[in-house]
Amino acid sequence: MQFFLDILNIESSKSFETFNDILGYDLLSSVENYSLKIIDIGVLLIIFGITLVVLKLLKRIIENPPKKQLEQEEFKRRHSIYLLVKYFVWVISIVIMLDSVGIKVSVLLAGSAALLVGVGMGLQNIFADFVSGVFLLFEGTIKVKEIIEVDGIIGQVEEINLRNSKLITRENVTIIIPNSKFVTEKVINWSHNHGSVRFMVDIGVAYGSDVEEVIEILQSCMANMQEIEQSPQPFVRFKNFGDSSLDFELIFWTRQAFTVDNLKSNLRIEIYKSLAKHNISIPFPQRDLHIISKTDA
């Protein structure tokens, strides 16, 4: 019996030595001053797998509860936090993996300093967009579905991502704008403080018209428009004595800021019909030309 046990021990030790030889096999034996063993590849795979598991757990923790139970803005914030954590974890993981195969990150950075400077200068705009996206998502100065004006473009915010945001214009055109535009330039947020926004429409009537009657008609026209809010109450202002007309200004509030041009058009149609019904004319510019003739002396 002891004889067989000795044989098994000898075979086991040989197998163990063979296994160690396999793990210690140098894949880059032809390269001087550097070695890459199979065991190093195994360590890389283990670190890679641990990184994936950690990121999966972090995503479940950060983005919990599920997306369906969160508002879109809140989900975007949580997702942005996860992306930041994800990038940080991957940087640490890559540094550990490089160190495990004998590549010193400090030496690598020192040797590629000039290259990194060039890459950094090329990526500075992207980095600025990235940081701006973080500020937008965390501060909430601009939110999804809000109406904004930036760079002369008016649109509804469709998405806010880390690097850029998507706007839908009134012409139903999708525009992708870098997030740094919202931080470094002037931005008008039409729906930031309240749901309704104030707008104005100008109208002129002929001299000799009853001012009080005109104001009553214009008030009635705004009251008949369902898109116009009645609180705050819309009102009419006698603006000026124009060159050819009495000028009035209609002030109203609406939640349809994105399609307000259509609302203004419908309101002007209603005004035109109502004034015509009450025999109040809308004048056009007129000029009187006086000709003075000179007689020969």
From TrEMBL:
Topology in the lipid bilayer is annotated as: Multi-pass membrane protein
Name all Mechanosensitive ion channel MscS domain ranges: 125-192
GO terms for molecular function, please?
mechanosensitive monoatomic ion channel activity
Keywords (alphabetical) are: Cell membrane, Membrane, Transmembrane, Transmembrane helix
PANTHER family assigned: MECHANOSENSITIVE CHANNEL MSCK (PTHR30347:SF1), POTASSIUM CHANNEL RELATED (PTHR30347)
Q: To which protein family does this belong? A: Belongs to the MscS (TC 1.A.23) family.
Q: Which residues cross the membrane?
A: 38-58, 79-98, 110-138
Q: List the Gene3D superfamilies.
A: 1.10.287.1260, 2.30.30.60, 3.30.70.100
Which residues does UniProt assign to the signal peptide?
none
Q: Which residues form the Mechanosensitive ion channel transmembrane helices 2/3 domain?
A: 84-124
Q: Which GO terms describe its cellular component?
A: plasma membrane
User: This protein is called what?
Assistant: Mechanosensitive ion channel
Every copy of the Mechanosensitive ion channel MscS C-terminal domain together lies at 201-282
Q: Does the keyword Transmembrane apply?
A: yes
Localization recorded for this chain is: Cell membrane
Entry annotated with the keyword Membrane: yes
Q: Which InterPro entries match?
A: LSM_dom_sf, MS_channel_1st, MS_channel_C, MscS-like_channel, MscS_beta-dom_sf, MscS_channel_2nd, MscS_channel_C_sf, MscS_channel_TM-2
Query: What organism is recorded for this protein?
Result: Lishizhenia tianjinensis
Q: Cite a single Pfam family from the UniProt record.
A: MS_channel_1st
